[in-house]
Design brief:
By secondary structure, the protein is α+β, with helices and mostly antiparallel strands. It has three domains: 14-227, no CATH class; 235-322; 362-510, Alpha-Beta Plaits (2-Layer Sandwich), CATH 3.30.70. It is 72% helix and 7% strand. It is built from 16 helices and seven strands. The chain has helices at 2-43, 51-63, 66-87, 91-98, 104-119, 126-142, 153-158, 169-178, 184-196, 205-283, 287-351, 362-379, 393-400, 402-418, 443-458, 486-502, and strands at residues 383-390, 425-430, 433-439, 462-464, 467-469, 473-479, 508-510. A five-stranded mixed β-sheet has the order 2-3-1-6-7, with helices on both faces. A two-stranded antiparallel ribbon has the order 4-5. Strand 4 and strand 5 form a beta hairpin. Helix 5 packs across helix 6. The longest helix has 79 residues, at 205-283.
Length: 511
């Protein structure tokens, strides 16, 4: 009976845990869907080319269609990219300058300079930017002055007034992310979003983050639905098995009671027959009559005993049949329990994997670095940390689109992983940043391996829209030493990465 109680308690705990996880996923889905709908409301009216896509996205988010939401988020991204390209055309700038008092020559010069800079923003020089700023400022000062600016996108999103319109959209989205109580399973990815939106991120980083949030909603919704369905099926079957077990136990009690009553009845009948036989022996003088009376009493006793034995045999066969059926159902339940545990384990592994590159994600890195740091402190074997960042990745997204950028990141991740040893570890830390743990590698070996990884990525030869795309990496390498924490070593490696960027990129700096 004690094992039955433990069995019920374990499955009750599983049911409670699954219910809590389902509620957490559902809450995250509601919050992210609300975020998407508010973003759509805030953006509406800013660009006629994007408005139809926003209306469709808001309708899909309201209806809760996960697959359609993911498809529409890609369409939104493409529409934003086309709108961004359209804004590079000089028509709006010319109309703006012509509203001032600039002469035709100055307007033509500003438009030509703007077109040149928009064609290759990375090659823009400070004198060119200063000249363009001077022309634009001169035109605005000579005119009626700028009109009162419309509240920015995220200012409208959170309801800020025009007096606070100087707050950057990236910072506004960070504030909005901080207002949501994210579940633990999503906190690592939200931290990545905060890093992308941080001070070092581009001004339009919020566009990509909104798209990633929509992808996150779809993935979280899909996992929650799958887990909820599996859990619901399992718990339904569990409830049925428990009900059958209860019925079996109640039936067993009833059978024991029937057996007891049958035994009592048999005893009473046998007593009655013995009394009747005794009276016949005492009252009957005729031997033949006495013999007939004794034989009749013995026949009745035999009949009573046979009836009791047959009833007991029938009860025993029924009990054995029900017990065999119950054992079969219990084996099925054990298999279902095993399948559920395996699915939970698989869901956990998926939560530790980056969906784009297939590499471990930041959550997996946090778990692995804690293990390797503890091993390093105990045994003292060399341990190196290498941080990679893709050079000029924003230009790839701006020029070829986010889908091409995603394919480039997946190929780079695969290339880096192929260069590692079996004991090493690589994860996508966030955005276009990767982190590598080189276990047992001394400084010279770590530098040699890092340079080989860098050269291999440079030679992979990516193409997008039929055009070659050059991809290079900048890296920061540090070895664990002293009493440093993993966070301190990562900061040193990140600082070394920053130096590599300023030394011309496509190199590795040891910190």
């Amino acid at each position: 009976m004690g094992s039955s109680v433990d069995w019920r308690r374990r499955y009750t705990e599983i049911a409670d845990r699954q219910e809590r996880d389902a509620k957490a996923h559902a809450e995250a889905e509601r919050e992210l869907t609300r975020l998407i709908m508010r973003l759509c409301v805030a953006v509406s009216g800013l660009d006629p080319a994007v408005d139809p896509q926003l209306d469709r996205l808001r309708r899909i988010a309201r209806e809760g269609e996960s697959a359609a939401l993911l498809e529409q988020s890609g369409a939104i991204s493409d529409a934003l990219l086309r709108a961004s390209e359209a804004r590079k055309r000089p028509g709006v700038l010319r109309r703006l300058l012509e509203r001032g008092d600039l002469v035709r020559r100055e307007v033509d010069e500003a438009v030509a300079l703007w077109s040149e800079l928009a064609a290759d923003p990375a090659a823009a020089s400070d004198p060119q930017l200063d000249r363009l700023a001077a022309l634009v400022q001169s035109g605005l000062q000579r005119g009626d002055g700028p009109s009162q600016p419309r509240p920015g996108l995220l200012a409208r999103l959170v309801g800020r007034g025009q007096g606070e319109s100087d707050v950057a959209p990236n910072q506004m989205l960070i504030s909005l992310l901080d207002t949501v109580d994210w579940p633990d399973s999503l906190s690592a990815e939200v931290d990545v979003f905060r890093g992308v939106l941080g001070a070092e991120g581009p001004d339009d980083a919020w566009v990509g983050v909104v798209r990633q949030i929509s992808d996150l909603v779809v993935r979280a919704t899909g996992r929650a639905q799958a887990n909820a369905l599996s859990t619901e099926t399992f718990l339904t079957e569990l409830n049925q098995r428990l009900e059958e077990l209860d019925r079996h136990m109640l039936g067993e009690v009833a059978r024991r009671e029937d057996s007891r009553r049958s035994g009592e009845t048999l005893g009473q009948k046998m007593d009655s027959e013995v009394v009747s036989l005794s009276e016949s022996l005492r009252d009957t003088a005729d031997l033949a009559e006495l013999q007939a009376s004794v034989i009749a009493s013995l026949d009745r006793m035999h009949k009573h005993v046979r009836t009791h034995v047959d009833d007991e045999s029938a009860r025993r066969e029924k009990a054995e049949s029900e017990a065999a059926g119950l054992r079969k159902q219990m084996r099925r339940l054990e298999q279902d329990s095993f399948d559920l545990r395996r699915q939970v384990a698989q869901t956990y592994q998926e939560a530790m994997c980056d969906a784009l590159t297939g590499l471990p994600n930041r959550r997996a890195y946090d778990e692995r670095i804690a293990q390797e740091h503890a091993r390093w402190r105990r045994f003292g074997d060399p341990l190196a940390l290498l941080v990679w960042d893709v050079d000029n990745f924003k230009q790839v997204n701006d020029t070829f689109g986010h889908k091409s950028g995603d394919r480039a990141l997946a190929m780079i991740g695969k290339t880096l992983q192929a260069q590692l040893r079996e004991t090493d570890f690589i994860a996508r830390y966030g955005g276009e940043e990767f982190v590598v743990l080189l276990v047992g590698a001394a400084k010279e070996d770590a530098c040699r391996l890092a340079d080989a990884m860098r050269r291999q990525v440079e030679s992979i030869g990516l193409h997008a829209n039929g055009q070659p795309v050059t991809t290079t990496l900048s890296g920061g390498l540090c070895l664990f030493g002293g009493e440093e924490t993993p966070e301190a070593v990562f900061e040193r490696a990140d600082a070394a990465l920053y130096k590599a960027k300023h030394q011309g990129k496509n190199c590795v700096v040891v910190g």
